[in-house]
Amino acid sequence: MLDLINAGAPPLPAGYFYRVQPADLGLLRVELRRQGRWFSSGVQDTYVRPGDYPTAEAAVVAGCQRVEQWWRERLANMRALDEARAWHGDHDPKGGR
Question: H-type helices in the chain, by residue range?
């Protein structure tokens, strides 16, 4: 993982890591995972076509950047939804029962 960080991939909080695997049709699957007590679980993933980048390293780093950005956006959306839940329910403009 340190090699990915040195190459330009965004660092992750403790307990999270990247997994890179081959996928169908010549793609690479870049996955962000969270390490649990006994096993890890997938949090976010994306696919990268290595031929679209000058080097394989650049393709993997771009995939890491994309998956981390999507994960951060998803976390922001979840926080916004939590704040919006305070407004759930009926709002009677007349102050009814």
Answer: 2-7, 56-84
